[in-house]
Design goal:
With about 210 residues, the chain is α+β, with helices and mostly antiparallel strands. The protein has helices at about 5-30, 40-55, 60-65, 105-115, 130, 150-160, 195-205, and strands spanning about 70-75, 80-90, 90-100, 125, 140-145, 165, 170-175, 180-185, 190-195.
């Protein structure tokens, strides 16, 4: 049996290895499928995020999307009234916290009614207050995923951010027109925060 010359064998091996590397490189460079969007976010953009960015979101409007409870948080610089909820969005757990707009008189009145001092621990308020304060404006909202959520899922839902700012840990993705800022690290979404556009612009311009 006649065997190919040794040089020919080496050449065939080289061609085979080159083809393998080419195929491997093509596989690595193949287009990656887009990350799955957050399915609930489209409805929330219309019902919650856009109204908040326009500074017209009320507690009643937010409650229509997710039921929660009110907490009064004493602070030396002025009490905060917070609306909190744990909810399932398309089967994924999230923690929500929103701050209500409060004037000084309203803060003092709530603190007195609850019998709290500025150094006391925060306290939940009764459900009756939810209806009484339904017309109060929401001035900020945060959403924290309670399990891993890829940051690119946000980009698949609302597009790429206008700005990417480097933080001590991770990045801030800023969507100025939506009043939205996302905090990311290691390609994971850590936090969504929404403010009225004017408040977001003021925060960005503050040194």
């Amino acid at each position: 049996m006649n065997l190919p010359p040794l040089r020919l064998q080496h050449g065939l091996i080289f061609v085979a290895v080159a083809l393998l590397f080419f195929a491997w490189g093509a596989w690595l460079m193949r287009p990656q499928p887009a990350a799955a969007p957050l399915p609930w976010l489209a409805e929330w953009q219309t019902a919650v995020l856009v109204p908040l960015a326009d500074n017209r979101l009320s507690l009643a409007m937010l409650r229509a999307q997710v039921e929660g409870e009110l907490w009064l948080q004493p602070r030396p610089e002025g009490a905060r009234l917070l609306y909190r909820a744990d909810w399932q969005a398309s089967g994924e757990p999230w923690a929500l916290e929103a701050e209500l707009e409060l004037g000084e008189a309203a803060r003092d009145s709530l603190m007195a009614a609850a019998g709290l001092g500025v150094r006391d621990d925060e306290q939940p308020l009764g459900g009756q207050m939810l209806a009484e304060l339904g017309s109060q404006a929401i001035v900020s909202l945060t959403l924290k995923p309670q399990q891993a959520v890829a940051a690119e899922r946000l980009a698949s839902s609302v597009g790429q951010p206008r700005l990417r700012l480097e933080l001590d840990e991770g990045q801030a993705w800023v969507y100025p027109e939506a009043g939205l800022t996302a905090h990311t690290a290691d390609e994971q979404l850590l936090l969504l925060q929404v403010l009225p556009r004017a408040a977001l612009r003021e925060r960005r311009s503050t040194p």
